[in-house]
Amino acid sequence: MNRTASKGGRPLEIADTDLSLSIESRIRRVRNRRRIRQAVTDVLLTAAAVYLLFGVVMGVAVVSGSSMEPSLRERDVVLFLRIDTGYNPEDIVLSKAEGDSVYIKRIAAVPGQTVDINEENGALMIDGTEVSEPYVYTKTAEKTGMAFPYTLGEGEYLLLGDNRENSYDSRNYGPVKEEDIKGKIFLTVRMGS
Questions:
Q1: How far apart are CA 26 and CA 33, in angstroms?
Q2: What amino acid positions are annotated as catalytic residues?
Q3: What is the pLDDT of residues 76-112, one digit of tens each?
Q4: Which of 118, 125, 133, 160 has the fewest CB atoms nearer than 10 Å to its CB?
């Protein structure tokens, strides 16, 4: 269906196809804008979710060194919960000690417990009782950072590596305050050999 108009005696035609192309291109532009807005919204929501998940709730770390062998090996990837504060003996945690250094160690004793080391057999003693530690294959020896026996104060934790002969831990730098514990490991991805 064509409409014609006369301008100066000459007919002017506007085709229906030209009008439909104009309307279709406008509709396409509106749809494209909606898609772009939706994509931007999706990216922002995903970024916010990733930040909340890995910046607030949990974190990822890579094991460096052999102090937690055989439980953790160098280059293993660990996931840890930042919001969990119910720390118990045998939990493996990330902690800050001596400035900004971050260590992965096992909680050996909690606030209020008295820790000692039996020098004869290299056993860890908690409140006078020898602790069963099936994940430790070497003897526990005293080091220069702590004098034993030691009673942990409020909010203090004793952190030890599983590879006791090759571990820089609380025996070197003393007990760790609860606020310096960054989180409890809940998943290990074996990457080390």
A1: 11
A2: 67, 105
A3: 999 898 887 789 999 999 998 877 788 999 999 999 9
A4: 118
